[in-house]
Amino acid sequence: MADDLGKGIENGSLNSTEVEKPQIEPIRLPTVEEIRGQDIWNNCAMRSVVSGVMGGGLGIFMGLFLGALDNPLMQEEMTGRQQLIYQAKQMGRRSWSSAKAFAVMGLIFSAAECVVEKARAKHDTKNTVVAGCVTGGAISAKGGPKAACAGCAGFAAFSVVIEKFLERHQ
Questions:
Q1: Which of 22, 92, 132, 136 could pair with 151 as two cysteines, CB 3.0-4.6 Å apart?
Q2: Each residue of 42-94: pLDDT tens digit?
Q3: Could you give the C-alpha distances from 55 to 5, 61, 71, 79, 98, in angstroms and in order?
Q4: Comparing C-alpha atoms, which of 57, 84, 58, 56 is closest to residue 72?
């Protein structure tokens, strides 16, 4: 009786795998519009501008969030309206500052990665390392050569960690 029970389980597992076969779809050639869209997106200038705009949008939201967390120093002596006005101004300042920083960061990183990718004709993690180094070095260049080197190394390492986390290249 134990043998009959074991055979039933085996047959049940075999039947379920035989029933579900994936269907093979024919290869479809891209349309003219799809090819044009790919050509536009493969343009490094277009990709960089889009990344800069998206980075600016992210910066606005980050600034709004972080600006809302700032408390005025004289909070006990301010009326509710004064506190509201202060918070709104602070959020606006933070949003503008963060938008500029994230836009520049997105633009530089995307441009560097695209140019390196086109020059090497490969899409791998080395492109990300070089783009991160260029971005980190460019952003921190005002602090001098040591700051630029530290920015290069830090942003390159951060870029690789994010790249591996998202597992874009397998």
A1: 136
A2: 899 999 999 999 999 999 999 988 887 877 677 778 888 888 888 888 899 99
A3: 61, 10, 26, 36, 9
A4: 84
pLDDT > 90: percent of the chain: 55
Question: Is-contact 92 119, C-beta < 8 A?
Answer: no
* Contact in structure between 113 and 128 (CB atoms under 8 Å): yes
For 80, 81, 82, 107, the CA distances from 87, given in Å and listed in that order, are 11, 10, 9, 30
Query: Rounded to an integer, what distance in angstroms lies between the CA atom of residue 88 and that of residue 164?
Result: 38
Alpha helices in 69-142 (DSSP H): 80-120, 125-139
Interatomic CA distance for residues 157 and 116, integer angstroms: 17
Q: What is the pTM of this model?
A: 0.74
CB neighbours (10 Å) of residue 144? 10
Alpha-carbon gap, residue 164 to 106, rounded angstroms = 19
For residues 109 and 103, what is the distance between their CA atoms, to the nearest angstrom? Answer: 10
